[in-house]
Automatic annotation (TrEMBL):
Belongs to the short-chain dehydrogenases/reductases (SDR) family. The keyword Nucleotide-binding does not apply. Keywords: Oxidoreductase. Pfam families: adh_short (PF00106). GO terms for molecular function: ketoreductase activity. The keyword Oxidoreductase applies. GO terms for cellular component: endoplasmic reticulum. This is Uncharacterized protein. Signal peptide: none annotated. It comes from the Eukaryota.
Length: 169
């Protein structure tokens, strides 16, 4: 059983269908509004995976700016949502799935990062870059913490993103 967590559904549904067809596996998706009641969303995820052997978690949740702006121009709602979705969402989904992997002594967690956090300072997407930097370091730390427990953790750092992904177009 693989878990796919993502904000949108178009690309993700295509990916789910591709994986089911090509790998002959079962995939369960749970739709969660990570800008809304995160506790309720995590409860839905825990409920959906209860009793399942979740072997792979792909954390692809994330939002960016609707358009580029300097840090002093970022309003409170956007600032809070960037951190809530990109940092807290990824962390809490991982926290919900990890105990089952530890119990079975196997699993893989793939967090989706971004090159803006790793290559050069990302003018003017500072908060987004910071949240993706968190994802990268979070993944590295989890890898070190759980590598001897049969759990592989990695961060896939994307270099190019479409304008739709980068700016919510």
């Amino acid at each position: 059983m693989a878990g796919l967590v993502a904000e949108g559904l178009k690309y993700e549904q295509w990916l789910v269908n591709l994986l089911i067809f090509s790998l002959q596996i079962q995939i369960k998706t749970v739709v969660v509004d990570f800008t809304g009641d995160l506790s309720e969303g995590i409860r839905k995820i825990r409920e959906a995976i209860e009793g399942l052997d979740v072997g792979v978690l792909i954390n692809n949740v994330g939002i960016s700016y609707p358009y580029a702006r300097f840090f002093h121009e970022v309003d409170d709602e956007l600032l809070n949502n960037l951190i809530k979705v990109n940092v807290e969402g990824t962390s809490k989904v991982t926290q919900a799935v990890l105990p089952g992997m530890l119990k079975r002594k196997k699993g893989a967690i793939v967090n989706i990062g971004s090159s803006v956090a790793n290559v050069i300072p990302s003018d003017p997407l500072y908060v987004y870059a910071g949240t993706k930097g968190y994802i990268d370091q979070f993944s590295r730390c989890l890898y070190v913490e759980y590598k001897n427990s049969g759990i592989n953790v990695q961060c896939q750092v994307m270099y190019m993103e479409s304008l739709e992904v980068a700016f919510g177009m």
